[in-house]
Amino acid sequence: MTTETPQTIAGVRIPDSVLAKEATELVREAASPLLFDHSRRVFLFGALRGAEQRLDFDPELLYVGAMFHDLGLTGRFARTDQRFEIDGADEARRFLRTHGITGEPAQRVWTAIALHTTPEIPLHMAPEIALVTRGVELDVLGIGYHAVTDEQRAAVVAAHPRPDFKNRILAAFTDGIKDRPDTTFGNVKADVLAHFVPGFERGDFVEVIQHSDWPE
């Protein structure tokens, strides 16, 4: 009987519990290779930022948060009545519960996914919440690019390549949210629709206040 050796990328050990393996397979089946590789990079970059900042985090919870964070952009899990982040957060919490993880740890993962496009606030929360955002920011926006070494970055990208990633991830964002434009109100994803969906009109916070039912 042979035992699989846990995979290590850029010095980061990929969780290999039953839960982590099932999370990997679920995302591999539901998401495109683009989103699968992106999600793995988010975990790796998040873990590297956590090590750099000497944070005490649960690798398994971080892994589920990173792997599920964009499930709301997939045909299998996308809804049209709420923000795509909540789609992924809800599925992560459901998945964790099937593995006996409930209460605060499950809520921590839910929050990490739900807030991953909300700038700054997640960085002041629990390490797993902060590090999902750190991973997303590094991979998508380049924030913290030099906080990891060139060698670490190269190892991550060698394992999970990102060909034409900037254009392809923008297309994935557009496809995943174009049918629910109202959910981008107050959200960075409104910028995506403004660029790529003709006729999109973003919500205006001032107009919401001025045109509410309050007389003054």
Structure description:
The protein is mainly α. It contains ten helices and two strands, in the order ββαααααααααα. A two-stranded antiparallel sheet has the order 1-2. 38% of the residues are buried. The mean pLDDT is 96.
What features would you highlight for this structure?
216 residues, mainly alpha, two-stranded antiparallel ribbon, 10 helices, 56% helix, globular
What overall form do the CA principal axes indicate? Answer: globular
Q: Write out the strand line-up for the largest beta sheet, numbering strands in chain order.
A: 1-2
Uncertain regions spanning at least 5 consecutive residues: none
Overall SS class: mainly alpha
- Which whole number gives the mean pLDDT? 96
Q: Would you summarize the structure shown here?
A:
The protein is mainly alpha-helical.
Topology:
Blueprint: E1 8-9, E2 12-13, H1 18-30, H2 33-52, H3 59-68, H4 84-98, H5 103-114, H6 127-141, H7 150-159, H8 165-177, H9 189-196, H10 205-210
Antiparallel strand pairs: 1-2
